[in-house]
Amino acid sequence: MTATETTAKTLLSVRQLKKYFPIGGGMLKKAKSNVHAVDDVTLDVYAGQTLGLVGESGCGKTTMGRLALKLLPKTSGEVFFQGKDIYQYSGEQEKEFRTKAQLIFQDSFSSFDNRDKIGSIIGEPLVVHNVCRGSELDDRVGELLRTVGLKPELAAEFPHTLAAGQKQCVGIARAIALKPDFIVCDEPISALDVSVRAMVLNLLKDLQSSQQLTYMFISHDIRVVRWLSSHIAVMYVGKLVEYGETEEIFAHRLHPYTEALLCAVPIENPRDRHIKREILLGEVPSPVDPPPGCRFAARCKLATERCSKEDPPLLERRPGHWVSCFEDFEGESEIS
Amino acid sequence: MANQATSKKKVTLADRFRYNKAALFSLIVLIVIFLMMLFAEQVTAYRPTQGDLYARLAPPSFAATEKGPAHIMGTDQLGQDVYSRLLYGGRVSLTVGFVVAFVGALIGITLGMFAGYFGGWIDMVIMRMVDVWSSSPTLLVALTFVMVLGPGKWNLIIALLVNSWTLFCRMARSQVLVIRSSAMVESGHAIGASTNRIMFRHIMPNIISPLVTTFVLELAHFINAESNLSFLGFGVQPPDTSWGLMIGEGRKYLTQAPWIVLFPGLSIGVTVLCLNLVGNWIRDEFDPLAVKQ
Lengths: 336, 293
What we know:
Helix content of chain A is 32%, strand content 23%. Chain A is α/β, with parallel strands linked by helices and 336 residues long. Chain B contains 12 helices and no strands.
């Protein structure tokens, strides 16, 4: 994550990004407390690759995705897209950014205006950016529907007539309509039946190679992230705890939370159930004005007095592998 | 949600309207009243200001007089035909009610959407204005305005408008607050849609149904308000008339000629009741949480 690397192949780089949501307070009062949704996160997303963002619900991964698209105001820090800070964009630059970066929702259906037909939902980005209109627009929408594996005739239907997987495909078609470079996929399969998850995942993977897409893939399912991602970032209560290449992280779990997250995946083969696993106990701490020190300290077996006093910095313990932990930990569970 | 929508498709709007007898009846009554007023020239024999001092305070009767057709609702203290005045006066009453409710809705919904969507100081300024306006009684404010502006139909409309927008503003704001944080709005931002497009293309159509209900109920409310003000002599001035003014003028003859007051009174009652029934029906139709029989 040095400066030279940033200009070489990173598409998006996040630097010391913070997002606090105030609680209480109002126009004239100061906020009583803050939810530290994203707290000092630094990471890179490389062009044409996928960054998997994992963590349990409430850890700030969705907020992180929204910040990467400038859909929320930040508290502090920077987000560089193709070398420029998106929070410093002019109106013109922001408009161009909106054609290059898109969002796929967990529940696409709720993101549709249910008064619109599928055709106008998919075509809306093209209309908004004056790409095409009239019969050209209809052709393009039909083409997009075919790309995501749906029949072009569906353009005249309402989205509630579709199955859940198809709705998600319409959401994907809308996201790729402007031929973007970067897509944030916010848990795109967690609301789907297991039977259609593979279909949507394969579609995302095919689109990535055919359209040179870069993904930030947000999920709580580390297996899915492993299958799709070249890099993984693990978040815990607003903090980035571990970041690196996927296989590197699976081979060397340097943060006890990552280890616990992997151990939480159910073992498929009943004969392997004897394998030693670390199961996490206790509750996730509240992100409201968290006390100083490692957020994981209360649940961590290795925690020392230092852990509850100082924030562990994110350090490069192995080449390209960043961890924020004081202890010299390496996960030993036999996980394949 | 999908199931709900598909099951709704089978029963059409007209079908459900047929089930609600009261609302259907009300709508028919309203349409009849409206058409009679619209074609008042054709369905009345007398001009509303055509007085006949020899035929003062004639009771309702179906027998033709020597000077013309029957005064089916009698005549008033100047010998003017009550039926004719009822239709022409109704035009004024309904115009005032409609214009006040409609312009109030336009202003209120626009301001309410801005307040709800942008929040912050814009919200504070608009909503404090609403608080101040709506904390003063509608009729008292309207009376004050009429005193300053002078009586008359258009001044009455202005006077009632002062308060009529606040309810629409509050309602539009609360609806926008709910929808503003929805994925639909976020999705609009994500594709780079303009604020205008998001507000008027996506938010507005999704919040309009409860506001239609409010509009119908407010229409009834302002027909009443016009009647009250005209009754007090602050509204429409003679020789023009309105339902409220007819009641106000007929009050003195209540014991001798109750029909002067009875018919405009009934008209107000029936119109307002019908509007309320139709309004309630629309609210039930648009609100899935409302209890249905």
